[in-house]
Amino acid sequence: MEAWTRKQFLALVVAVAIGSSALTAAATYGLVTGERPADIVARLADTAQNVLAQDQEQAQAHEEAVVAVVARASPAVVSIVAAKDVPVVDRFSPFAEDPFFQQFFGITPEDPGQTERQEISAGSGFIVSADGLIITNRHVVADTTADYTVFFNDGSSAPARVLARDEFQDLAVLRVDRENLPILAFGDANAIKPGQTAIAIGNALGEFSNTVSVGVVSGLHRSVFASGGRGEVEELQELIQTDAAINPGNSGGPLLNLRGEVIGVNVAMASGAENIGFAIPSNYARRDVESVRERGRIVYPYLGIRYQLITKELAEERNLPVDQGALLVGGEGSSAVIQGSPAAAAGLVEGDIIVEFDGTAVNLDRPLASLIRERKAGDSVRLAVRRGNDTFTVTVELAERPTP
Fold this sequence. Notes:
Blueprint: H1 6-33, H2 37-73, E1 77-87, H3 99-105, E2 115-127, E3 133-136, E4 147-151, E5 157-165, E6 172-176, E7 197-204, E8 208-227, E9 233-242, E10 254-256, E11 262-269, E12 277-281, H4 282-295, E13 301-302, E14 307-309, H5 312-318, E15 326-328, H6 342-345, E16 353-357, E17 360-361, H7 368-373, E18 380-387, E19 390-397, E20 399-400
Antiparallel strand pairs: 1-2, 1-4, 2-3, 3-6, 4-5, 5-6, 7-8, 7-10, 8-9, 9-12, 10-11, 11-12, 13-20, 14-15, 15-16, 16-17, 16-18, 18-19
Helix pairs in contact: 1-2
């Protein structure tokens, strides 16, 4: 018999100790209850088998739910390809201008003004109405001189028109001239919680259509600086963080829950890290679609204030009466309440603290800006305002945000 290794010997000792402890515990329990130790051990084994079977059933049910969601959602997920005429690069440089090479190889110098059609980018999107409305990221369709083609799950394609680009969120609304298209429904992004299942579908790397990745919601209310690859950088706020893989080309695709509802629009991934991706909450995308349907463009609601979200540190520093809310405060040469705005019409003044927005507490998890963005211009909302030691309620009609 071969000599045992130290690890094997330690494993044996541990196994014997565990077994002895279990038998000792069973014997002691049997003395107290009158039950035979063998019966106790058999019952414990049955319980362990039942727990294992339940875990396996739950895992199988979860897997089946994911597969069902992907099967239902995939027909509504599309690839979006941008193409444009670009200048032809001199393929034969540095000899293309040499008369000897032109005569010997039959090369004709290319016209400096000559162009050729090229695909310049690709991304993802998803259909939200049977008559052809599609949501994607603004950076997917950022080039106003390009033409866009949508490729469907069945292999067909159609030209797309960009109806609106959201100037404040990385979202855009497109239309294709099709009818009776499969659609995805929006879920409530405010109801999602860290730990719940998240399913991302998209056109990974611009070539692998309907690529699926599964993970969980890792965090909420994230802010990141994102680059669209064309040199522009913008801050994205109130994002959903997920460990479901969001690769280049997935931008604009849906992030789904286990009910098959869109809870986010995939938008970015963290460079230099693994399994850190971000999505724009679905409530913002829903609002953009409704705005385009009603007004033909994306219109943002507007209250007309400058403010600072209250933290415990700020409350202590300024001796404020509350430790959460939005403190109206101006900056250099700017007032806290903009003249002629809905806030001014409602009588709000610098130093007021908005503690609730239409019944929802204003805090770091639900900042005022995100609450306003979820509404539409023309909506009437009730604000709970703290002024000194008094709290009062005012009704404000949100206006259309001025063009920046």
